[in-house]
Amino acid sequence: MKFRSFHKITALLCSMVLLTSAGCSSEPVVTEQMQQTEISLSWWGNDARNKYTIQAVEKFEELHPEIKVKCSYSEWSGYETRNRIQMISDTEADVMQINYGWLQQYSPEGEGYYDIYTLDAMDISQFSEDVLRYGLRGEHLNAVPIAMNAQTVYINKTIYEQYGLDVPKTWDDLFHAAEVMKADDIYPLSAASKSMWLYLIAYTEQTTGKTITDDSGNLNFTANDFKIMMEFYQKLVTEHVMPQVDFYQRLELDNEKYAGSVAWISDAVNYFGEAISNGREIVAADYTTIDGSNIGQGWYAKPATMYAVSKNTEHPKEAAVLLNYLMNSKEMAELQGIEKGIPLSAAAQEILKKEKVLTGIQYEASQKMEGCTLGEMNPVLEKTDMIDDFFTACNDVIYEVKDIDMASKEVYTKIKAYFK
Q: Are 356 and 377 part of one and the same domain?
């Protein structure tokens, strides 16, 4: 019995290996007269992104039958965890979608990813120098941005009009809206933890006239500045302007318990697609300010996502061919559209203009970003553990575990350590 069980287990494991190693397409690989080179591609995203990326890869394999692409994908949190393990163990994909902050984390000196400048098959002339600098570490081009991203204030104008309110422009406008909507238990605005963190930074920079980091990327805020952030967060929560991040639920946008949200440009359709399909008017509002002037002060932009090539790839030429296809090809541009934001590739933009795809809430948010001068986001500001530390300190104040002076000093010490 044990001998038969062993063979059953062995057969099962073999089947699992075969399934795991399968590529994007289900068709058998014909290699009678052609030597195929297999490379891997990884990305994160929702079902819609997975579907069109797989379709794009299938088209790529038709155009390049000498190259087979093995696909690996998942939702964000799983991808982030797996990427960390793969980068440490040097088992990452040949071509991979990466987050902007990972350049500093895995390649501070430019040695963590392949130097794309050396890849002839990648047409970087389609990108401006201003765009490419986001992927530079030292003199190495470690990654190419797909699109730019910024936190944006999205407002369900339909709800605001029901209360006789204009789209908010200032912090005071939001508090006024809260007074009007509170009776129906509706929040004028909402935000998940990272968006709330960046929103509070914008307020504090406008209030103090200081930036959170200096020109060298060092922490510029003091314990007192974090105290201002914490006080304002508490005020937003207690006066029913925005829900506490611990209780934030994106579905409440669909239920119209939130009349708006702060979110990335790349998340516009994910957050408001249902509301738009239900006939609600969703607008990308002005970046919130104290008095309506200096629009964009305290707000930051960064690459939405980027593509990089593994420093360990054994097939840099084939990886470059795939990278160029993902960034510049007609096939990928038409399938991807503006799902990841307005593409930075001149070739891809030209294709979308001809196809008249540059419309909708995501495009509106991108235009809002391009119309303002936003600071370049320091990747450290996106560190998940640091953001969690901040809101833990805020909760200590809200639940009266600590007074705000003590909590702000402690969180300042923790945040300062992340910048070191």
A: no
Give, as one character, the DSSP assignment of residue 312: T
| Residue span of the structural domain in which 384 resides | 150-301+373-419
| Of residues 381, 378, 367, the one with CA closest to residue 148 | 367
| Beta partners for residue 40, in sequence order | 70
Specify the pLDDT at position 308. 98
Average pLDDT score over the chain: 91
Both 400 and 284 in one domain: the answer is yes
What's the pLDDT at 373? 87
Q: pLDDT tens digits, residue range 300-334? A: 999 989 999 999 999 999 999 999 999 999 999 99
Number of domains in the chain: 2
Share of the chain residues as helix, strand and coil, in percent rounded to the nearest 5: 50, 15, 30
Region 8-31 average pLDDT: 42
Verify that 220 and 270 share a domain, yes or no: yes
**Residue 372 phi, psi dihedral angles, 5° rounding:** -125, 155
**Where does a domain end: 346, 364, 382?**
364
CATH number at residue 187: 3.40.190.10
Q: 143 and 40, same structural domain? A: yes
**Is 12 a domain residue?**
no
CB neighbour burial string for 383-394, b if at least 16 within 10 angstroms, e if fewer: beebbebbbebb
Q: How many CA atoms does the CB half-sphere of 246 hold within 13 Å?
A: 14
The answer to whether residues 207 and 130 belong to one domain is no
326, 341, 364: which is the final residue of a domain? 364
Q: Which two tokens stand for residue 185?
A: 């238990």
Q: What is the pLDDT of residue 264?
A: 94
Rounded (5°) CA angle 204-205-206: 90
pLDDT for position 32: 52
- Is the model's pLDDT at 258 over the cut of 80? yes
Cβ-contact 409, 223 below 8 angstroms: yes
- Spatial distance between the Cα atoms of 165 and 205, rounded to a whole number of angstroms: 27
8-22, 133-147, 232-246: lowest mean pLDDT where? 8-22
Top pLDDT among 133 and 31 is at 133
Residues paired with 264 in a beta bridge: 151
240 and 379 together in one domain:
yes
Q: How many CB atoms lie within 10 A of CB 232?
A: 17
Question: pTM value?
Answer: 0.82
* Residue 315 resides in a domain: yes
Q: Are 362 and 276 in contact (CB under 8 A)?
A: no
